[in-house]
Amino acid sequence: MLGHHYTRTFLESAVASMNAGCNLELSYGLRNNVFMHIPQALAMGNITLQMLRDRVRPLFYTRMRLGEFDPPAMNPYSALDLSVVQSPEHRNLSLEAAVKSFVLLKNVRGTLPLRGQDLPGKRLAVVGPFADNPRVLFGDYAPVPEPLYIYTPRKGLEMLPTNVSFAAGCQEPRCHQYSRAEVVAVAGAADVVVVCLGTGMDVETEAKDRSDLSLPGHQLELLQDAVQ
User: Fold this and answer.
1) Do residues 183 and 157 make contact, with C-beta atoms less than 8 angstroms apart?
2) Which domain holds residue 24?
3) Is 120 in the same domain as 218?
């Protein structure tokens, strides 16, 4: 609220947040955060002790239900490790969630889905800075997965019964250095071309916004070359 000029001080922000019903502040790594001023607000009479108790109660109720105050032996979650989290059952569930969350904006001439029975003998090209770069596939607030379980578009398409060729065109999302010849050669020899473009955290994250929605660097040129 301070950054958006809704309030002038952390103290005012704390009071406004408490009055609005907010009881949790995302302040990781900030020693002087907004809610550290709650004792001062209470002493000045800007908030009441009852209000403070009302805000804190659901927080501790949730933490108690999660077992945070129980001995580790009483908490069933304390025995979980990566072998459970990354079990085949959980990975299959993650795959199902990913498949069901795709948004298809257009499907000109019924291009998708690519059917396995139609692919033998076909040549498939996957191009672009996001085609085979695991590092750029995750956005802000994403977990850090085990590299073993990361499937890039190239790696996934290579599981299909077809000949897959690859050209990044540019190595990073900013796409300052673009190899047109590389993309044209691969795309020109293919029956189906999958172009993988985007931004990634190199280009935009929280507090690092862009002034437009244009593809960065030479990515638009890469797309046009692939289409042509």
Assistant:
1) no
2) 10-74
3) yes
Does pTM top 0.85 for this prediction?
no
CA dist 68 → 23, 30, 73, 75, 143 (Å)? 18, 23, 12, 8, 22
Domains identified in the chain, total number: 2
pLDDT digits (tens, 9 = 90+) for 139-182: 888 877 778 888 899 999 999 889 999 999 999 999 999 999 99
Distance of CA 19 to the CA centre of its chain: 32
Report the C-alpha gap between 145 and 89 in whole angstroms.
Answer: 16
E strands along the chain, which residues?
123-127, 163-167, 192-195
How far is it, in rounded angstroms, from Cα 132 to Cα 126? 9
Q: What is the mean pLDDT of the chain?
A: 91
pLDDT digits (tens, 9 = 90+) for 122-137: 999 999 999 999 989 9
Peptide bond into 113 cis (omega under 30): yes
Are 124 and 163 in contact by the 8 Å Cβ rule? The answer is yes
Q: Please, which pLDDT band fits residue 187 given cuts at 50, 70 and 90?
A: very high
Residue 95 resides in a domain: no
Domain of 109, CATH number, reads 3.40.50.1700
Residues 151 and 61 in one domain: no
With a cut of 90, say whether residue 19 has pLDDT above it: yes
In a domain, 182, yes or no: yes
Residue 206 and residue 139 in one domain: yes
Compute the C-alpha angle 180/181/187, nearest 5°.
90
